[in-house]
Structures are given as C-alpha cells and as structure tokens.
From TrEMBL:
It comes from Acetobacter pasteurianus subsp. pasteurianus. Pfam families: CoA_trans. Signal peptide: none annotated. The keyword Metal-binding does not apply. This is Propionate CoA-transferase. Its EC number is 2.8.3.1. InterPro entries: CoA_trans_fam_I, NagB/RpiA_transferase-like. Keywords: Transferase. GO terms for molecular function: propionate CoA-transferase activity. The keyword Disulfide bond does not apply.
C-alpha cells in the first residue's frame, strides 16, 4: 500500500510557499486530520510557511472542526482565497483565521465560490483564467473592493476588468495548486475514491485535476481503505491516477458535530414524522415570512442559519414537496461565468 501514509508523513511532502487547495464546507468533507498534522508540523519545525490556501467554501467551523484554524498560525499563511470563512456565535472568540485577517498578517480575499471552482477548472485545463459577469458592480468588482478583505489584499489585486467582444468582463487568473487536500469516504490501495458516506463532493475532482495537471500533489483523507480492485467503478468519483497519497482517518466526522448520519449522505430518507418543527420565536417568525413568498414548483437555494428552518415551516403547514430545495454548497457558476 505504497500510497497509504499517516497524516504526519503526508504533510512532509508540502513545501514552503506552496499553493494548497482544500475541499470542504464547514465540517462537511473537511480533511481535518491532514490540516491538523500540517499545523503540528509548522508548530514543531517552522515549515511549511508562506502558504497560499484556496477554499471555495470554508474549511472548518466553530463547533469542533478546526479546519483552516489548524494552519492559521503567524507566518504559516501569506495569502488565502475563500468563498466563505468559518463563522459561529457572535459572543464567541473569533476563529484564528479571522484574527490573522483583521491583524493584516496575510492577504485575504472573498471570491464567489462558483468563480473559485471555475478558476480551478481553468487551471486544470491549463487555460489562462475566467471571464465572468458575476460580481460586476458588487464587492467583487475591482473598482469597488475587488474581493479584498483587508488592506494587505488590496495591495495585491486578484481581479481586473477586461473588454472582450465589445463587452465588459471581470477576469480572474486560473488557480494552479501545488497541493490538493481532498476528502472522501473510501479509498482502495490504488487511490480510487468513493463518497458513499459524504453529503457532497465539493469540487474534489476539480481540485485533484488542477493539482495533478500542473505537476502538483494530491492528498486524500478517507475513513477507510479497501483492497485494490474491490470498489465498484461506477461509484468512483476521483480516479486513483490523480491521487498520490491516501491518509486513513477512521474517526473523521461526516459533518459538523456528526460522526455519521446516513440521511446526510442520502443512503436513507428519514420519515417526515421524525422532524421537529421549530419552536415559536423570532427565528420561526422570520422563516415563516420567507415561506410566504415561495411559489409552488420553484427551485429554491437554501443557505445556513435561520433559512434552514424554512423547509420545516413548509412541512408543518403541509406543503412539503411544494418547492425543490437546492443546497448552495453544490451550486457552481457553470453557464453564468460565460454570460
């Protein structure tokens, strides 16, 4: 099992100044064991430092999965590109990555998640970058904030405007990671990856291709390792030819504060009677007000927080199935970024 290594062994392959892409959405699919080992190596040896990290969706949360906070040590990250960042209760101490950002200790950018995925795809295809109209006249526009979250980032622009075919576009250069740190449920000895216990794939394939096609390293954290040739080809989402290192982490959480729930990965569907309706209060009032604006047969993108109560309001009022829910973590900009 030449590809199978410990997390500590895997992170010794990451060099100073590397660009690292991480697939995650808070606790979902977070390769926390590898990130923890990476942070431990830096704390003990001072390497690897001056990293650029890429997170289409934030890695980690404030509820037990540290994620990017493992590596948010002074001098370890010089630049971070994220579609979102760890968040939690406002009365709690801010995550370490936020402390680094607000302290101007690194350049931080908030780029729309779909655009980051497209930047990785362009890197995988060895194309120069992304032309998009998404973000014009918003915080992503370089004439406004240009995705910069602090002054350090403003001094190192990540986006510019271009004229192409008589139209104005935003242009983001392709991302070409030196390392992709991804996560799955199972790997075989050849590195083929399946996601049967995961709630999403979150760009694992895009990241693996972007790193592999540019001579980089792909590290995959999994819960278990299977014998070579025993995984069903139909179930493999990332082929072993793209994976260099497999790290077995039997205790990895499926998602935030959850070791494993088969309903999250779609292996079962819970009876509707098993869901609790929200208790009356401000959050329920807001959710009900939103529910009143929904129309039958709409496809509705749902995010975090209070919005997560809206499906339960429909369930309580006998309207389950009236709309189709789409989870924002799996939306890409395909079709939008080209106009």
């Amino acid at each position: 099992m030449a590809k199978v290594k410990t997390a500590a062994q895997a992170v010794t392959l990451i060099k100073n100044g590397a660009t690292i892409a991480v697939n995650s959405s808070s606790g979902l699919l977070c390769p926390d064991a590898v990130l923890e080992a990476l942070g431990q190596r830096f704390a003990a040896e001072g390497v690897p430092g001056q990293l650029t990290t890429i997170h289409p969706i934030c890695a980690g949360d404030m509820f037990g999965t540290k994620g990017v906070d493992h590596i948010a040590q002074p001098g370890m990250i010089r630049r971070i590109i994220g579609g979102s960042y760890p968040s939690g209760p406002t009365n709690a101490a801010p995550p370490l990555i936020w402390q680094r950002i607000l302290g101007e200790e690194l350049a931080a950018y908030n780029v729309p998640s779909g655009i980051i995925f497209d930047m990785l795809r362009e890197g995988a295809a060895c194309r120069p970058g992304v032309l998009t109209k998404v973000g014009i006249d918003t915080f992503a526009d370089p004439r406004l904030e240009g995705c910069a979250m602090n002054e350090t980032a403003r001094q190192q622009p990540i986006v510019k405007t271009l004229q192409f075919e008589g139209e104005e576009w935003l242009y983001f250069s392709a991302l070409k990671p030196d390392v992709a740190i991804i996560r799955a449920s199972t790997a075989d000895e050849k590195g083929n990856l399946t996601f049967e216990q995961e709630g999403a794939t979150l760009g694992a394939m895009e990241m693996a291709l972007a790193a592999h096609n540019n001579g980089g390293l792909v590290i995959a954290q999994v819960r278990r390792v299977a014998a070579q040739g025993t995984l069903k080809p139909h179930d493999v989402k990332v082929p072993g030819i793209l994976v260099d290192v497999v790290v077995e982490a039997p205790e990895q959480l499926q998602t935030t504060a959850t070791f494993y729930d088969p309903a999250i990965s779609g292996e079962i569907f819970r009876p509707l009677s098993s869901f609790e309706v929200p208790a009356f209060g401000p959050a329920k009032v807001m959710a009900r007000r939103v529910a009143q604006d929904l129309q039958k047969d709409w496809a509705v993108n749902i995010g975090f927080g209070i919005s997560a109560n809206v499906p339960r309001i429909l369930l309580e009022e006998g309207q389950h199935g009236a709309v189709t829910w789409v989870i924002d973590a799996e939306i890409s900009q395909k079709g939008c970024t080209s106009g």
